Amino acid sequence: MSNIRKLAANVMHTKIIWPITALAAILLFNLFFVPGFFNIEIKNGHLFGSLIDILNRAAPIMVIAIGMTLVIAKEGIDISVGSVLAISGAVAISLLGVVPLWMAIVAAMVVGVLCGLWNGVLIAYLGIQPMVGTLILMTVGRGIAQLITEGKVLTTDNAAFGFIGKGFFLGLPFSIFIAAFVFLFVLYLKKRTALGLFLEATGSNKISSEYAGLEPRKIYLFVYIVCGLCAAIAGLLVSSNISSADANNAGLWIELDAILAVVIGGTSMRGGRFFLAGTVIGALFIQSLTTTIYSMGVPPERIMVVKAIVVIVVSLMQSDRFRRMFQQKNKQAVVG
């Protein structure tokens, strides 16, 4: 019996268990209260259904959240990713028909890298607080996107470009494979290179890492560049999915969903250890919650409130301090 309790305690303290539990809970809710939620149809060799739709729509959040995980592991934050997404999408759409498709895609990704470089220089080398530094680009970025689109919603009928966000590969949305590639690539960097160790070392104790010969500023710069690149990839996914570039609405508030996905996934805002798998599950939870709310017919003006309540509950569930308080109250109740 004691071994079972120890095993249960170890499982409860595993970071990944809480996002998995939250995702399982929302899926279980849909099983009982949303008819047809788990139905999957095959049309023209492609899979369709709510679960497939969740995977497809979660892809941009997932990609941005992966980049955000690296930034948060360095005790940073990037609230400009939504604007970078809008800029990159605007660049890609505006260049289609002028240059080859691959050049438009590369240009959009280069813009994302430059935006990340801008944030990294402001924060790592000029000492500006991450929230303030990225707020600059968050504000200016929408204006830049509007300049590129000339204040209009640009559209495209390029089928090859549309395949990125709307196409199917092996029966599944192509966006899923892009998100999976980004995840596996960053996971490889974490597990198979010194980068993961350096990130966790400089994030948890900056002074000690400097004494150890590491250069936190360069790592800061690197993670913001990666985050900018991830935002650009998400911009390609979003703009190709809707075949347009909307400077005002593209990626609006996606930075909040990305940050929530990282936190729900178990990565601490104080930096240090980070959990990429938890981030992916967190992104799936956020999108599953959004899809569920729409399926339940909740009025649009109440959606953010419902999401906030659920996220607060999930965050409390994975809080070590909250769990200790809950356990102490249970013990007192048993003794009483």
UniProtKB/TrEMBL annotation:
<feature type="transmembrane region" description="Helical">
    <location>
        <begin position="302"/>
        <end position="319"/>
    </location>
</feature>
<dbReference type="GO" id="GO:0005886">
    <property type="term" value="C:plasma membrane"/>
</dbReference>
<keyword id="KW-1133">Transmembrane helix</keyword>
<feature type="transmembrane region" description="Helical">
    <location>
        <begin position="16"/>
        <end position="42"/>
    </location>
</feature>
<feature type="transmembrane region" description="Helical">
    <location>
        <begin position="106"/>
        <end position="128"/>
    </location>
</feature>
<dbReference type="Pfam" id="PF02653">
    <property type="entry name" value="BPD_transp_2"/>
</dbReference>
<keyword id="KW-0813">Transport</keyword>
<keyword id="KW-1003">Cell membrane</keyword>
<feature type="transmembrane region" description="Helical">
    <location>
        <begin position="54"/>
        <end position="73"/>
    </location>
</feature>
<feature type="transmembrane region" description="Helical">
    <location>
        <begin position="274"/>
        <end position="296"/>
    </location>
</feature>
<keyword id="KW-0762">Sugar transport</keyword>
<dbReference type="GO" id="GO:0022857">
    <property type="term" value="F:transmembrane transporter activity"/>
</dbReference>
<feature type="transmembrane region" description="Helical">
    <location>
        <begin position="79"/>
        <end position="99"/>
    </location>
</feature>
<dbReference type="InterPro" id="IPR001851">
    <property type="entry name" value="ABC_transp_permease"/>
</dbReference>
<protein>
    <submittedName>
        <fullName>Simple sugar transport system permease protein</fullName>
    </submittedName>
</protein>
<feature type="transmembrane region" description="Helical">
    <location>
        <begin position="168"/>
        <end position="189"/>
    </location>
</feature>
<keyword id="KW-0812">Transmembrane</keyword>
<keyword id="KW-0472">Membrane</keyword>
<feature type="transmembrane region" description="Helical">
    <location>
        <begin position="219"/>
        <end position="238"/>
    </location>
</feature>
